[in-house]
Fold these 3 entries.
Entry 1:
Amino acid sequence: MDIQFSNAQRAEVLTQALPYIKRYVGKIVVVKYGGNAMVNEQLKQQVMEDIVLLWLIGVKVVLVHGGGPEISDMMKKLGKQPEFVDGLRVTDQETVDIVQMVLAGKVNKTLVNLLEMKGGRAIGLSGMDGRLIEAKVKDTRLGFVGEVTKIHIGPVHDLLDKGYIPVVSTVGCDRQGNAYNINGDTAAAHIAGALNAERLIMMTDIAGILRDKDDPSTLIPEITLSQAKELYASGVISGGMIPKVDCCVTALHAGVKNVVIMDGRVPHSILMELLTNEGAGTWIRRDEA
């Protein structure tokens, strides 16, 4: 449906966004990007537009991305069958080379190029650049899947200070030179914590935390850390939502002001979350906030 707005209505929308713009100008917002919003071309364009708009009004945006479907596609093209244990990709030496090639190469540079085409200034980094994401073996069953041991955040600060949008692919390394496949949510949580970000936005393929996982109308709009524990205990937070909320808790403990889990399938959901009163998804905050 094509909705037409008058100039007065457009001006009113911008005026209503002003308090939210003032809140985030000069602050750091980390966006974890992946899932359906990444593979759907129209949504990808809209996410890039949202990020560039925020950058243009003075928000310091850091984009952390995954690329699981692209990795699986490349593995199949090269004759390797993707294998997962507890939701994590089994990553042998050949697979970690593919991960590095796809994430730090094709996906990262495609996103940088899109941001530039939308009018932004972006530079791509992998977690190996400047040893941004230092890691160790997470589980020997998984091969070169990394557990984050340290974040060297200097390269990201340098790019932000020079007015760029850092675009970070989640490939880490250790001091022996081994490359590791790092879970995107985990990497985003640690990076946002190291930056003391104002907000971490976790884009996913569901509306947020639901009281009934099969009913989007049961979305819980806001919870505290203590309420999150209760939702774990009651089974409301279960299955694939457990590791995602775990990453949110990690981010909050590491210094992020607040975190939101939201549906990346909704057009312009980033702007809805940051620049409107209604927001989008589930907002998670510390109890004292």
Note: The two ends are 40 Å apart (CA to CA).
Entry 2:
Amino acid sequence: MKIVPHSFMKKKYKFHNEALIESVEELPNPARGWYRIYTFCAEEQFDCEEYKKCAYDEDMLALVFIDIGAYREKSLDEEVLANIDAILGFFTGIKKDIILRIAYDHKGKAPEREPFFFSYVTDHITQLSGLLIKYARHIYVYQGMLIGNWGEMHTSRFLSNFKMRKLSALLYKCLGRESFLAVRKPSQWRAINFDKDKRENFSENRIGLFDDAVFGSATHLGTFSGSKKSNEWTDSWGIEKELEFEGKLCRYVPNGGEVLYDEALAEKRKPVETVNRLRLMNISYLNRGYDKRQLDLWKNTFWESVDNWSGINMYDYIGRHMGYRFCVRNVIMKYIKGKNPVCIWKVSIENVGFARCYHEAHIWIECVDENNKMHSSMLNLNLNRILPGETLTGECNFVPVSGDIYLYAERKKDKTPICFANVTKQKQRIFLGRLSLQ
């Protein structure tokens, strides 16, 4: 029988915490941030060689715009579907989350380029459905319903409530559990979700918003009503009421788009007002190429605060807070002695971003022992549960072993790492401290 020395029995494991400092760096996290637009005409043969360089840019998102206006009065044949397949396959291959917009017009001339008969629009969605289903796991947001100037769901003859419901029903069948449909205006969302039992059933809905006129005017260029008197469910409401609605809806579905420059309002709007508007809208993504006047104004305006963000220009501040941004605030280890000793870990994580993470994401405590062997345990907290401005605590247990302790997270559907907003030497995981036998 082996006798364990009494002095050893008194020893216990102790956790030596690393300081948790919030970083101001950009994080290469999926399904959030700035994007660029890549526009294609469906009838023109796709040449991937022209676009290989975009595999190396810093954006995790790409808005893929495919103009099918050349087919407005005919079916999408096998050749054009194969071309669209090649385009989507390319962006999937370079690991971009796709914001997809397929439309008849990319020049602001929808009345000239849309089909005359509504049946062509529904037929085209049916013909595209196989590809949309095939790439559903890689399409973050499907914007619009093929219609309107630039595919933005305005200036079209097909915007009646009945037709929008018909189009959304066809597209909805193509969505996976990780992808979303988006409409241009909150009133359009309400027109589609008009049944009383669907009106505020946000948590089960897969339809979000895209706003390509953020700050373009007091009403975001007609996204909202200029009147405060609109009260019907399918009406456009005044901006305060609409922003309140967006704040509730977009806790569950994404919102993003483009910012526009309004000379009368841009210079007067304070940085904190800008950030509060984007936070209230739960903005996840914005176009880094438009409107340059507004974006340049942000680049020359600086955030003032008492924390380490003070002095950061507004363009970077906004870019780094779009979507989710998770910061580890506290780590506690409780050691339970006995025949089967165990370490109980509690990790508190705050979402300091403008929006939630809309995909499931798991978190692990990892221990690299003195022999460089990895030990890990998953926290009972999914990152998509943490709303913006909220702090939640996850817990896990594992058998103690001396070593360096790290925190690691990844998106469930494709194992893409999710980085935390703490100062760390390793981008994809953060060092929490060291566990040792005392």
Note: Confidence is low (pLDDT under 50) at residues 1-8.
Entry 3:
Amino acid sequence: MKKIVMISPHYEPRMWGGGRRLIDEFHYETEVAPLGEVYNAVALPGHADCRIEELNTVLSALYKDEPDWFNCDTEELPIRVNILDPAADLSIQIHPDDAFAKQYNGGRGKPEAWVILDTPKDGRIEFGHHAKSREEFIQWTENKEWDKLLRYLLAVKDGYIDIPTGTLHAIGKEVLTYNISRNADCTLRLYDYDRIDPATGKKREIQPEAVYENVNIPDKLIEFEMFKPVHENGIDITRYVDEPGLYTLQRLQVKEKGTFAFDRFAFYTCVKGKGIIEGNYIEQGNTLLVPDGFGEIEIEGTLDLFLASYRNKTGGKDR
């Protein structure tokens, strides 16, 4: 029987972590340290897989065992969600497309999108590059002329930014970010500031040759976008993206009470406040899974929620 369930977060240590916000504000309790990233919904068996405690299972198994909860046209859960609060800049990296990822590590490409939840006044992200040709990109990299090569954007609170495969990117220090992406894990690093990983005592591996092969040249010069919410049935709804075969992302902001109807399964992640979704308590840091075809839900409280979902690429199993 379909029911709304709480998804337990999955934690992994990050050398660029170490801040307190995910613990103090989001109530995440873990001995994993340094903590800078939380997987709110991920289903990569044997690597990163969220638990559903009340069902005594993990998300990847629920997807296999209860396909009607999702009704998707993919063998694996198609999306993942995470929140990042880095205490230091992430490595300069890209995610390749499906063809390269399959050959490289048997995985899939990982297009993604971010919404900036909070940022210091000087917060920034690395996004794209200034090279006009592959030769110029390689030359500036090999000469470590990062000021010439790397393109930085001032982080914009509540700004949305799309990150297609092949896009050079890195979240900057103290830029709190909600991230939706394909449920995949193939990252190619170009530069990691020559940092020493305390877990190994060595520099982390970089893959410049693979980056040269996959980075978008010329760069697409993508910028932040601001979306205006619409008020429907007591809820301010911001609709960012709804691309079949990729992912759906919305933001629901509730001040007292509202009703909401969505025709697909969805992960509802609370980034602020607390309240009730169809009888289920949720607070900052929590994620609830509402199964496919569940129907209209009632939301009460003061809540800032992100909805992450997926529509099938073909008519197939989608409702």
Note: Residues 188 and 210 are 7 Å apart (CA to CA).
